[in-house]
Amino acid sequence: MQVDVLNTKGEKTGRSIELPDDIFGIEPNDHVIYLAVKQYQAAQRQGTHKVKTRAEVKGASRKLHKQKGTGGSRKGNIRNPLYKGGGTIFGPKPHKWDIKLNKKVKDLAKMSALSYKAKENAIVIVEEIEMSSPKTKQLIDVMKGLNVAEKKTLFVIPEYSDNLYLSTRNVPNIASILLSDINTYDIINADVLVLTESAAKIFSEEQAVTAEA
């Protein structure tokens, strides 16, 4: 898949990058995408929810009255779950929500998500953006030049840039992520992927190394 490299004004630079079909041109597998998104969302849960059982709530442990002869029902102590202030039956306990997925499954999910974006022509490659300081307005101007200002955009960069991160932080529909941290959920959640030229070249370089091996 050949993609033109654009400058920050959205104009073609005359350069292009070949994105490997083994990553961006496979037949997407919807089920593994579902599994990867489910794993990501499950990992966001803290799992700290907790209620007290009858062994943990405050209250005396004595029996409220004798078992027989009162004409009423049998009763235990005041911490009985049937009473106000009593313990909770089968309430939630702290636990992890982690879901295990094999590396091959996660890789296939990411490639499937990238292939969907490629089929939708939702991948843009832009030359390197030089920012001497955090400037949200400058970044918005770049997004307007690329015609993605109104879309939910995932900005993929090869290395962390403090200025770029701070510039994207205040824009609700733009997020930046390192290429090494990219995941299926972020790809699917975005309307368009904007890759810097150096980030896009990494895909081609990795494919060349794999082919040689």
CATH topology of the largest domain: Ribosomal Protein L4, Chain: A
As residue ranges, the low-confidence spans are 208-213
Would you state the CATH class of the largest domain? Alpha Beta
Order of helices and strands: EEHHHEHEHEHEH
Helix percentage range: 25-40%
Largest sheet: 6 strands, mixed
What's the mean pLDDT score?
A: 90
Termini gap: 22 Å
Please state the overall shape, judged from the principal axes of the Cα atoms.
elongated
Short description:
35% of the residues lie in helices and 15% in strands. With 213 residues, the protein is α/β, with parallel strands linked by helices.
Describe the structure.
With 213 residues, the chain is of the alpha/beta class. The protein has two domains: 2-46 and 100-212, Ribosomal Protein L4, Chain: A, CATH 3.40.1370.10; 51-91, no CATH class. The protein has seven helices and six strands. The chain has helices spanning 21-24, 30-43, 103-119, 136-145, 162-169, 184-189, 197-212; strands at 2-6, 12-18, 123-126, 153-157, 174-178, 192-196. It has a six-stranded mixed beta sheet. A hairpin with a 5-residue loop joins strand 1 and strand 2. Helix 2 (30-43) packs across helix 3 (103-119) and helix 4 packs across helix 5 (162-169). The longest helix has 17 residues, at 103-119. It is elongated, with a radius of gyration of 27 Å. The two termini are 22 Å apart.
